[in-house]
Specification:
By secondary structure, the chain is mainly alpha-helical. It is 76% helix and 0% strand.
């Protein structure tokens, strides 16, 4: 998927009912959910490209980070959330530190 497609999906997630304390919490929750979607797409890309080497996987992860940066820029422009550049990379470092070390994102 392209960044614009993730952004459209994000806006749809915002419309879903939620039990968050505030609308702002829901917006951030949907961003995190979208970052997880970026990560889940890695496997799809890997299979499509028949990527097996470490360098191929690193390239895919870097591409996902660039795509996520475009997504974050759109979210920040429309919703003014102040999400930092490389939020995907930071998400991986926080949630999957061993993976981050393997792809030299420390």
């Amino acid at each position: 998927m392209k960044a614009i497609e993730y952004f459209k999906k994000y806006k749809e997630k915002l419309k879903e009912p939620n039990e968050m304390d505030s609308e702002l919490d829901h917006k951030y929750y949907c961003v995190v959910s979208s970052l997880m979607d970026f990560f889940n797409e890695v496997k799809t890309i890997q299979l499509a490209r028949k990527a097996k080497s470490d360098s191929a996987m690193i390239a895919i992860m870097n591409e996902q980070n660039l795509k996520a940066n475009s997504f974050v820029k759109m979210v920040n422009l429309e919703y003014n959330l102040g999400i930092r550049k490389d939020a995907f990379k930071d998400f991986i470092k926080d949630q999957m530190p061993d993976l981050a070390k393997m792809i030299a994102w420390n």
